[in-house]
């Protein structure tokens, strides 16, 4: 199978929440991508960088932050060699996410601001460039929110909402940044949650539906993000309901993400009699 097709298959594993299959495929894919990149051609270097970015994504998803940082760093190196501003932005975004999880807010913001500037420098002449710009703004907004920068977070999510308006409701297959207006709204949920404003988060997510998202990973993320908001509001019934919905559509979002496992743990400790909590506890491998 050609290398680009194998990378697409690996991305499909991530989108489907099939993390074990992806982690099994990555070593061979990376080895072959390295071999191809010996040509020093832009397309092979970009493919290698994108493979490392994907490796960073899945590492962060399952809580392997040191491994994610190493992968993001290698993604950045090969992106620079490729000369592609979008691939470089993707690598910088992954590094910012890793740094955010490692409580290095200043460094995380520096990386994502660099990514925004790289994409903006393209002139935003195509939908692909606009999608990349919108994605970088969303990540910048959430990064600022996690750092407690209220004004910056809200300014960036408003700009992302504006930038997303001309984009299609469903991103074309194969787009590097498949962002849509619904995806921006989901980011807004996370931004308001991170700022400690659950009412604004619920308002931002009021119109979200599973059908607006193309992948199981995003559908599951919608439910887990809403669950975190309900949990912040001390509403365990609604929290459990959203987590059950996530478990049905993408079990890995509940079973493998450390932050969501922690919510399930607390539900099990404090609200064991609520409908669905025992099922959630069992799903993450805790004693019922």
SSE topology:
Blueprint: H1 3-15, H2 19-37, H3 42-61, H4 65-82, H5 85-101, H6 105-120, H7 127-146, H8 150-164, H9 181-194, H10 198-204, H11 216-232, H12 236-249, H13 251-255, H14 258-270, H15 277-283
Helix pairs in contact: 1-2, 1-3, 2-3, 3-4, 3-5, 4-5, 5-6, 5-7, 6-7, 7-8, 7-9, 8-9, 9-10, 9-11, 10-11, 11-12, 12-15, 14-15
Distance between the termini: 45 Å
Poorly predicted sequence stretches spanning 5 or more consecutive residues: none
CATH class membership of the domain at 1-121:
Mainly Alpha
> What would the CATH topology of the domain at 1-121 be?
Serine Threonine Protein Phosphatase 5, Tetratricopeptide repeat
Mean pLDDT: 95
What are the secondary-structure elements, in order, as H or E? HHHHHHHHHHHHHHH
Our Rg estimate from Cα atoms comes to 19 Å
Described by strand count, sense and barrel closure, the largest sheet is: none
Q: Quick one: overall form?
A: globular
The level of helicity is: over 70%
For the secondary structure, the number of strands is 0
Strand content: under 5%
Structure class: mainly alpha
Structural overview:
It is a single chain. The protein has 288 residues and is mainly alpha-helical. The protein has a domain at 1-121: Tetratricopeptide repeat domain (Serine Threonine Protein Phosphatase 5, Tetratricopeptide repeat, Alpha Horseshoe), CATH 1.25.40.10. 75% of the residues lie in helices and 0% in strands. The chain has helices spanning 3-15, 19-37, 42-61, 65-82, 85-101, 105-120, 127-146, 150-164, 181-194, 198-204, 216-232, 236-249, 251-255, 258-270, 277-283. Helix 3 runs antiparallel to helix 4 and helix 10 (198-204) packs antiparallel against helix 11. The longest helix has 20 residues, at 42-61. It is globular. The termini are far apart. The model has no long low-confidence stretch (mean pLDDT 95).
């Amino acid at each position: 199978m050609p290398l680009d097709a194998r990378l697409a298959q690996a991305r499909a594993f991530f989108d489907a929440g099939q993390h074990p299959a992806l982690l099994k495929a990555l070593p061979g894919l990376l080895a072959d991508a390295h071999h191809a990149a010996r040509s020093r051609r832009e397309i092979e270097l970009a493919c290698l960088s994108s493979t490392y970015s994907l490796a960073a994504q899945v590492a962060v998803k399952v809580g392997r932050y040191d491994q994610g940082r190493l992968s993001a760093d290698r993604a950045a190196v090969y992106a620079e060699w490729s000369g592609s501003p979008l691939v470089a932005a993707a690598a910088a975004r992954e590094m910012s996410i890793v740094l955010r999880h490692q409580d290095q807010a200043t460094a995380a913001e520096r990386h994502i601001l660099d990514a925004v500037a790289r994409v903006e420098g393209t002139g935003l002449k195509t939908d692909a460039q606009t999608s990349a710009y919108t994605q970088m703004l969303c990540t910048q907004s959430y990064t600022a929110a996690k750092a407690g920068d209220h004004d910056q977070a809200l300014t960036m999510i408003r700009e992302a909402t504006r930038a997303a308006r001309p984009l299609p409701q469903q991103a074309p297959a194969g787009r590097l940044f498949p962002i849509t207006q619904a995806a921006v709204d989901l980011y807004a949920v996370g931004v308001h949650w991170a700022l400690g404003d659950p009412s604004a988060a619920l308002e931002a997510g009021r119109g979200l539906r599973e059908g607006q998202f193309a992948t199981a990973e995003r559908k599951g993320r919608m439910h887990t993000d809403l669950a975190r908001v309900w949990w912040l509001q001390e509403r365990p019934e609604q929290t459990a309901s959203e987590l059950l919905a996530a478990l049905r559509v993408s079990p890995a979002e509940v079973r493998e993400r450390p932050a969501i496992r922690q919510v399930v743990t607390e539900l099990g400790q404090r609200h064991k009699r609520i409908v669905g909590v025992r099922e959630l506890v069992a799903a993450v491998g805790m004693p019922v």
